[in-house]
């Protein structure tokens, strides 16, 4: 008995990286793993990116798993993140589908390195950042309930944030402030003042 695969052929998009001279002539180098591939997909799906009013400033990617992309607008009134997400998420979903379900985080670019780092560590919140420019090191303090979000599964979130910002990142926890114990109120008994008897002469 013979089997035949009658499924429809899958259509895939590739990034043309290079054309080189090989032993049998010209060879085409294609890629779907290159971070630039994600940028080209957004240019295809987002008119604001293709027109240049929204710029892709940085991309960090672990192919097939997750990508972080930082975007900025050079045109007044254009929301770069909203433009890339699209109405009801339709634009970013189209990119995700092309990437086979790869998660894509879109963050707002900032020239302030500390603010960019905080955004890149999303969904963690309430972070404080101390930068050592000489060592290209960032020390991030996070509330204890935000540490796992900042680091991510198997360190993925903090690893991508490091690639996006070009910094080494150390995350440390900040203990939650302890609430002062409330002392129960003790009832005090009211004592009546004893009055001296008045003498009648």
Automatic annotation (TrEMBL):
InterPro entries assigned: KH_dom, KH_dom-like_a/b, KH_NusA_2nd, KH_sf_prok-type, TF_NusA_bacterial, TF_NusA_KH_1st
In this chain, the stretch annotated as Disordered covers 175-201
GO CC terms on record? Answer: cytosol
Q: Its domain of life?
A: Bacteria
PROSITE patterns with a match to the protein in the record? KH_TYPE_1 (PS50084)
Question: In its keyword annotation, does this UniProt entry include RNA-binding?
Answer: yes
Query: What range(s) does the K Homology domain occupy?
Result: 63-126, 134-190
**From the UniProt record, which GO molecular function terms apply?**
RNA binding
Q: Indicate yes or no for the key word RNA-binding.
A: yes
Basic residues bias located where? 186-195
One GO BP annotation here? Answer: transcription antitermination
* Xref: Pfam families: KH_NusA_1st, KH_NusA_2nd
What is the protein name given in its UniProt record? NusA antitermination factor
Gene source species: Candidatus Woesebacteria bacterium GW2011_GWA2_44_33
User: Which lineage is the organism of this entry classified under, starting from the top rank?
Assistant: Bacteria, Candidatus Woeseibacteriota
């Amino acid at each position: 008995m013979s089997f035949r695969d009658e499924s429809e052929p899958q259509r895939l998009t590739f990034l043309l990286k290079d054309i080189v001279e090989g032993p049998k002539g010209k060879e085409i180098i294609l890629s779907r793993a290159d971070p630039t591939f994600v940028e080209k997909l957004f240019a295809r799906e987002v008119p604001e990116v293709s027109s240049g009013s929204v710029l892709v400033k940085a991309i960090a990617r672990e192919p097939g798993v997750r990508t972080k992309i930082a975007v900025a607008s050079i045109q007044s009134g254009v929301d770069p993140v909203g433009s890339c997400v699209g109405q009801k998420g339709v634009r970013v979903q189209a990119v995700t589908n092309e990437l086979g379900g790869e998660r894509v985080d879109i963050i707002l670019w900032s020239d302030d390195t500390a603010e960019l780092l905080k955004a890149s560590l999303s969904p963690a919140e309430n972070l404080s950042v101390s930068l050592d420019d000489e060592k290209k090191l960032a020390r991030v303090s996070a509330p204890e309930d935000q540490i796992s979000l900042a680091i991510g599964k198997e360190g993925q979130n903090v690893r991508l944030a490091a690639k996006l910002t070009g910094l080494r990142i150390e995350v440390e926890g900040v203990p939650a402030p302890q609430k002062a114990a409330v002392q129960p109120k003790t009832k005090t008994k009211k004592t009546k003042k004893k009055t001296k008897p008045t003498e009648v002469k």
